[in-house]
Every structure is written in structure tokens, then in C-alpha cells.
Design goal:
single chain, alpha/beta, Ribosomal Protein L15, Chain: K, domain 2, three-stranded parallel sheet, two-stranded parallel sheet, 4 helices, Ribosomal_uL15/eL18, Ribosomal_uL15/eL18_sf, RNA-binding
Length: 162
């Protein structure tokens, strides 16, 4: 195979339809746009317009808000971390951080940090430097002889009651 012989698979592409080029083409006269009116012209921008009726996006009630200060954490179970240790992708001598988990392929991308959850079994003695960890995860890590350092407070974002 040569570079000049490379072609798309049969049927992968369609030829462009030339519109408005005579009645014999099948797309002449109105060029598939129907007849007259705003939508037959160019520059139409009527998304969401319902002919003067209150549009659906304004009729429906709005709920909640998007918190701009919210932390977007990766959630990882200790069982998944143990699998990475067993496979040799995670070194037990090096502290487990979000960067180390990303390098080991445990998390797809580094967000604001990582939260360790307690599902699964942990047998390796590991040192964790993470944003958060659940109580069950901390208990399992300490039972295996490891330690946890949390950089974000466990009550971050929660409302304190007086």
C-alpha cells in the first residue's frame, strides 16, 4: 500500500448535494427549504422561540445552583489501589498522591484531588497524602499499618450548626 492509494472505505463519505441548480436535479427552486418565510432565508436564529408563547425553558421552574467553589475530587476505593500495588504499577515505598495514582493509571485525570473510599481489602502498608478519606478507608489503611494525611477538612462545604 502506498500513500497515494489510501482511500476511505466504500460508502464512508457522501458527495455534497448541490442545491438550487434546476428542477431536474431534484433540489432546484426552493432547494429543500420549503416555501418562503423566515426559515427559507439565510441567517435564521429562532432556537427556543415558540411563536410568542412563553418558551419551555422559561415556563419550567429553576432549581439549585452550580457552586463555583466546589471541589471536584477523584473517588478511589482501597481495593482498586491494592490491585495497582499487586500489578506493580504503584510503589508501596512512595507516598500515594493523586499524581502517583494518575501515573499508575488508577485515575484518568488529576482534578482537585482524590478521596479514598473504603470498599475492598488493603494488605499493603501505604502512606497516603490525599485531599480526603472516608472513616472506613482510614480504618482499613491504619489496620494494614499505613497512615493517612488529609489536606482538605472533612467538613469542607458542610454547614456548621450552632
Amino acid at each position: 500500500m502506498k500513500l497515494n492509494e489510501i482511500r476511505d472505505n466504500e460508502g464512508a463519505t457522501k458527495n455534497r448535494m448541490r442545491v438550487g441548480r434546476g428542477i431536474g436535479s431534484g433540489k432546484g427552486k426552493t432547494a429543500g427549504r420549503g416555501v418562503k418565510g423566515q426559515k427559507a432565508r439565510s441567517g435564521v436564529a429562532i432556537k427556543g422561540f415558540e411563536g410568542g408563547q412563553m418558551p419551555l425553558h422559561r415556563r419550567l421552574p429553576k432549581r439549585g445552583f452550580n457552586n463555583p467553589g466546589a471541589t471536584d475530587l477523584n473517588e478511589v476505593n482501597i481495593g482498586r489501589i491494592q490491585q495497582a500495588v499487586d500489578a506493580g504499577r504503584l510503589d508501596p515505598a512512595v507516598p500515594v498522591t493523586v499524581e502517583a495514582l494518575h501515573a499508575a493509571g488508577v485515575v484518568a485525570r488529576v482534578r482537585d484531588g482524590v478521596k479514598i473510599l473504603g470498599v475492598g481489602e488493603l494488605s499493603a502498608k501505604l502512606t497516603f497524602e490525599v485531599a480526603r478519606a472516608s472513616k472506613s478507608a482510614v480504618a482499613a489503611i491504619e489496620k494494614a499499618g499505613g497512615s493517612v494525611t488529609q489536606s482538605l477538612a472533612a467538613t469542607d462545604g458542610a454547614v456548621a450548626s450552632a
